[in-house]
Structure prediction request, 462 residues.
Amino acid sequence: MGGYKVLNNKNKFSVTRLLVIPVVLVLGVSVFLLVKRMEGTPPTIELTLESPNLGLNQTIPLKVADAKSGLRDVQVVLIKDGQEIALFSKTYPSAGVFSGGVVREEDLRIEFDASAKGVIDGKAVLRLMVRDFSWRDWMGGNENRQELEVAIDTRPPGIDVLSRANYFAQGGAGLVAYKVSEECRTSGVTIGETFYPGFKSPFGSSDIYLAMIAVAYRQGPGTPVYATAVDLAGNQTRVSLPHLINARRFKQDKIPLSDSFLDWKMPEFANQVSAGAGASNVDIFLKVNSDLRKANYETIKQLTANPDGQIHWEGDFLRLPAAAPRAGFADHRSYIYKGKKIDEQTHMGIDLASLEQASVPAANAGKVVFSDTLGIYGGTILIDHGLGLFSMYSHLSQMIASPGQMVSKGETIGKTGVSGLAGGDHLHYSMLVHQTLINPVEWWDSTWIRNNISTKIEAVKR
Prediction:
């Protein structure tokens, strides 16, 4: 009887243990879920408005996220003159009571149409509210509520073009002076599809801007020209600019390619292009003249992307002394090899030949932004003269001026040479307005500068 009782006690103990373990596990899981689902971190809100001004039609970019419990809902409300105007509302799906929300983050683009919402100009408050699927607040979730003071501005900026006489040559440049009625995000002149930004004038009132512009060599008569402005609220104005573009015809030229030239020049370019194993000199040349030329222009575009807004130049631009022209701006070149045309390109500068390794003067005062080797251009120096005007000197054998250096008009910056894709000692001289290559001849003409640039600047000073 005694042995039976002991065995019975062991069985009771085993049964008790079997009952306790599940209870403990259930309690543990319950506590874990409770702690997890009762988390107290609110959702995040990222609002990336360029300005606290809301225009007539505007997109409000908003990013919402909740990594722990998932997004429950989003609301965007505009409070104006005591009235709440709903701009946006979205509810997100749940993955289950224990799992939280399905969506953890989302980038939203909320379209604001002041006219459709009946909103008039004036001060307002933008309220953003986001909740998650936490069990906090009696299952209501954590809430992030933010309010931002904004100004409703539905009126487009006014533009008054001060430069009435606007005569341009195909491939040439010019300057437009204009006045805006309010502070603007951007303003300038658009020619065709190319935008040329304006800079605040260092003379006269603070609402006057100067835009250096260019008519690309392919843009002839009939190309539309507009003065444009976008205010802080995103409202845009476009005013047609009275103008005349004089058409130009550019030279057609044939460039013979000899084996001696290719044998001389192509080895230095072999590692700059991908012509493939066993590529001939002609294959390498075609890659250099096309792919490398395009890549070099992309570099030039980057170098001219952020010009100095101050005017550094004065008067006409200097030409390489005692130099004869060897090729003109926008000459259309056909490259001939063994009697056949194998390529064609446009020559976007003027070639000037003087003595070998002749001293090259800075055409005008400015800041050196590049002084290095640049593919087909060889040794190259690029100078920022202000307002988006640049001069470029290529095929140099020596580069004396350094990046960041301010140079004066006539100061020696380098020596002519045969670097890059040059067949003989010369200077390839180019000028640009922002990223558009222009005809340098205009800038060697003091009369043209006075009639088209200086008089407009002087008028602003008065």
